[in-house]
């Protein structure tokens, strides 16, 4: 059985020492989904939400969150991201907004948490901006879709097409 890398020999939490790891190009792609009703979904599409342009604000919030992940998640290393991209996939049939966040860097540690944090905060921002119109908004399906680079190698979620 594998051990948790964030626990020392006594089972106490610690930040992993990455000083001896090789720097490699790393990429992580994560997703989150926001489930809206038809009225709210249409209002987002038509920029009719009173607080402003929902998707632009959510994109900026997601980027800011990804850049600040180490300040929110205690064992994450502060890293120098080289790219954060956030895209929205609108599903007119299910009134769902899928958030896709891609994070890149060349470093000794990965960017999965940054991609996941960016997607999560973008979803929370959509919720915040739309909650006056709809009280039963749901956020779900937050997951890592793909990662490349590093000692543990590449990973691709079976649901990821790309």
Automatic annotation (TrEMBL):
Which positions bind substrate? 75-77, 113-114
Pathway membership, UniProt: Cofactor biosynthesis; molybdopterin biosynthesis
E.C. number: 4.6.1.17
Q: Could you tell me what reaction this enzyme catalyses? A: (8S)-3',8-cyclo-7,8-dihydroguanosine 5'-triphosphate = cyclic pyranopterin phosphate + diphosphate
Pfam families per record: MoaC (PF01967)
Q: Name one GO biological process term.
A: Mo-molybdopterin cofactor biosynthetic process
Q: What are the alphabetically sorted keywords of the record?
A: Lyase, Molybdenum cofactor biosynthesis
Q: What role is this protein assigned?
A: Catalyzes the conversion of (8S)-3',8-cyclo-7,8-dihydroguanosine 5'-triphosphate to cyclic pyranopterin monophosphate (cPMP).
How is this protein named in the record?
Cyclic pyranopterin monophosphate synthase
Species name: Anaerococcus prevotii (strain ATCC 9321 / DSM 20548 / JCM 6508 / NCTC 11806 / PC1) (Peptostreptococcus prevotii)
């Amino acid at each position: 059985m594998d051990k948790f890398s964030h626990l020392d020999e006594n089972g106490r939490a610690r930040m992993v020492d990455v000083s001896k790891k090789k720097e490699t190009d790393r990429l992580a792609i994560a997703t989150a989904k926001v489930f809206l009703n038809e009225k709210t979904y249409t209002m987002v599409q038509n920029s009719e939400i009173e607080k402003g342009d929902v998707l632009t604000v959510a994109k900026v919030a997601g980027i800011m969150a990804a850049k600040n992940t180490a300040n929110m998640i205690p064992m994450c290393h502060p890293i120098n991201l080289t790219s954060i991209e956030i895209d929205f996939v609108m599903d007119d049939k299910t009134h769902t907004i899928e958030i896709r966040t891609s994070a890149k860097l060349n470093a000794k540690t990965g960017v999965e948490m940054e991609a996941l944090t960016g997607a999560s905060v973008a979803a929370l921002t959509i919720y915040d901006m739309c909650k006056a119109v709809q009280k039963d908004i749901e956020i779900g399906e937050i997951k890592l879709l793909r990662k490349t680079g590093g000692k543990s190698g590449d990973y691709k979620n079976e649901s990821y097409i790309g």
